[in-house]
Amino acid sequence: MLDAFSRTVVSADAKGAAIGSEDLADLRKYVADANKRIDATLAITQNVSCIAADAVAGMVCENTGLTQPGGHCYPTRRMAACLRDGEIILRYVSYALLAGDPSVLEDRCLNGLKETYLALGVPTSNAIRAVEIMKIATVAIMTETNTGRKMFKGINSGSGAQCQDIASEAASYFDLVIEALR
């Protein structure tokens, strides 16, 4: 994983060219958004357990057979594994968001994720639904539209509307997870 500055230098070096004005404009935007990135990452990490638990609970509510004997969230150790996996996905989404680069998510989390679930006999449709719920909750936290949940702490720097671009970027990282599971 490279940060925005290293990516720019490596890219320019590979082309054998100097860093261009468009590259510098992108870096200026990255620096301007740095506090929002930090706040967005902090919002995820402060709420990681709630987001993962709500996602797994939502998935189970939509398919109550998951917690019955023979279901994929039965016994409790399987439920704990679902929660753990949700928290891991959130952690890597937060890394990608902070860096402004999905490569750490792709390399460390998504590479072989679907194959692992298939080998364990976990229906990917359930995992996809849990990720969709995590995406919705995370975007709501970042845009401060999570009105029904007092426990969530949103982004501190600016209004929800100002954080829409960061929330959209986070949503795109969840979309990468969903696509990897399809």
UniProtKB/TrEMBL annotation:
InterPro entries: Globin-like_sf (IPR009050), Phycobilisome_asu/bsu (IPR012128), Phycobilisome_asu/bsu_sf (IPR038719). The keyword Nucleus does not apply. The keyword Nucleotide-binding does not apply. Transmembrane segments: none annotated. Keywords: Bile pigment, Chromophore. One of its GO terms (cellular component) is phycobilisome. SUPFAM superfamilies: Globin-like (SSF46458). Pfam families: Phycobilisome. Coiled coil: none annotated. (2R,3E)-phycocyanobilin 2 binds at R77, C82, L83, R84, D85, G86, E87, I88. (2R,3E)-phycocyanobilin 1 binds at N35, D39, C163. CDD domains: PE-PC-PEC_beta. GO terms for biological process: photosynthesis. PANTHER family: C-PHYCOCYANIN BETA SUBUNIT, PHYCOBILISOME 32.1 KDA LINKER POLYPEPTIDE, PHYCOCYANIN-ASSOCIATED, ROD 2-RELATED. Belongs to the phycobiliprotein family. This is Phycoerythrin class III beta chain CpeB.
